[in-house]
Amino acid sequence: MSSVLWFRRDLRLRDNPALLTAAQNGPVTALFVLDDALRRPAGAPRLAYLYRTLRALDEELRDHGGALVIRSGKPETVVAQVAREVDAAAVHISADFGPYGTARDARVAQALDVELVRTGSPYAVAPGRVVKADGSPFQVFTAFYRRWSEHGWPAPARSGAASADWRSDVASRPIPHDPALPPGLTLPDAGEAAAVRSWQAFVDQRLAGYSDQRDRPDWDATSRMSPHLHYGTIHPRTMLADLGRRDDTFRKEVAWREFYAAVLHFWPESARAYFKPEMTRMPYVSGRLADTRLEAWQQGRTGYPIVDAGMRQLLAEGWMHNRVRMIVASFLVKDLHLEWTVGARHFMRHLVDGDLASNQHGWQWTAGTGTDAAPYFRIFNPVTQGRKFDPDGRYIKRFVPELVGLPDELVHEPWKADQKVDYPDRIVDHDVERKVALANYQSVRAS
DNA sequence: TGAAATGTTGGGGCG
DNA sequence: ACGCCCCAACATTTC
């Protein structure tokens, strides 16, 4: 008897129920499949981060006498092949609930001569479990959150790496080298040990102030756990257990991730399609104007400091502060009149934490097209938001060095400065575009 | 997890 | 003392 533990987005050895299940059935072969269908849409930063995570996992496995077996190709071919090579009685996975993963796993189960055993998922509560009394899915976060909290989740699973009998004699491709990264890009530390370290640092140093300080992009006040959650180097259940009853605000952020995973599970098409179909009639700019605006937004050259700082942080770190994600998203949709799908795609290409469910639904929330979405007429004023959440412009000056010489008051409105700064003029006038957006919205509602 | 427009209230200056 | 005006501060409505 032997088994294959096929890793996907659960690249850890602690609190891993699928690993415990696999370890009960003789020697375990740890497998990761380089699947081009997943590698293609990921930008270089996320790919590099994945490879680093794989290297860390491989090292941990080697400490336990094993190794991570890397293969490339179609999972339905490769997983079946490896299962035959090691004469596995079963292939163990943690369940995936995304549209691609669901279809892929169905194909793999079909192709296997042995059982594909799903144990656990990357969520505290598996998507689909939390539903209304009548069995229908929640479309409103607050109601979901109440039910999700009542539902509860198991305590973290015990660590099983030490007790597993890892195989290390299976042929493997090398883990690919990092792809070429943009110069100056700094990625967060990858791997399970880094996840545990950085979670502990957050709990010790920043959790107490989280609810008051999390909206400040100029402070290091957030958990920064999103890349680790994306690749499963830590399980949210571990985090929730450490929270105890301490911080409802942070628990809610974990719950947003679970909510959006559930929404995607029940409405797989919502990754692309507008939740509110009438909103597809919103008019957008097109042609050269659209191209120019999109490029200015992507490069962080819109002339609005908080927007540009956020977009440049995305390019510099593969990450953006959540408050600023909302500001730049609102700006794309309501000031530049570009479609949310365009912005969502750019985020997915550049974010190390790029998670389909959270990203697409977060964008739909901002664009007013989604479940439990902000009403369309909630339009962020980039100057007001900047003043409120980056009062002395420290975040802006970190990513937009052209503005370093400006006093705090002018850093959010450099166009009012007497001194000339080498910084783009505003590509649009917020006051004007806000009215255009509201008029567009009226025209959609009337039609 | 908005912001602007509009409405209301109340203090102070003034005749 | 009183009414009137102005306007800041706050509340409500609207998009």
Descriptive notes:
This protein is mainly α and 447 residues long. It folds into 3 domains: 119 residues, Rossmann fold (3-Layer(aba) Sandwich), CATH 3.40.50.620; 108 residues, Serine Threonine Protein Phosphatase 5, Tetratricopeptide repeat, CATH 1.25.40.80; 170 residues, DNA Cyclobutane Dipyrimidine Photolyase, subunit A, domain 3 (Orthogonal Bundle), CATH 1.10.579.10. Helices cover 47% and strands 6% of the residues. The protein is built from 19 helices and 5 strands. It has a 5-stranded parallel β-sheet, with helices on both faces. Helix 5 links the parallel strand 4 and strand 5. The protein binds a DNA duplex (15 and 15 nucleotides) through helix 14 and helix 19.
Total DSSP E strands: 5
What CATH architecture of the largest domain do you see? Answer: Orthogonal Bundle
CATH class of the largest domain: Mainly Alpha
CATH topology of the largest domain: DNA Cyclobutane Dipyrimidine Photolyase, subunit A, domain 3
Overall 3D form: globular
Classification by helices and strands = mainly alpha
Task: Write out the strand line-up for the largest beta sheet, numbering strands in chain order.
Answer: 3-2-1-4-5
Spans of at least 5 consecutive residues with low confidence: none
Number of domains: 3
How many alpha or pi helices? 19
CATH superfamily of the largest domain: DNA Cyclobutane Dipyrimidine Photolyase, subunit A, domain 3
Strand content: 5-15%
Profile the largest sheet. 5 strands, parallel
What is the averaged pLDDT score? 96
Helix content: 40-55%
C-alpha termini separation: 65 Å
* Order of SSEs: EHEHHEHEHEHHHHHHHHHHHHHH
The Rg value, from CA coordinates, equals 23 Å
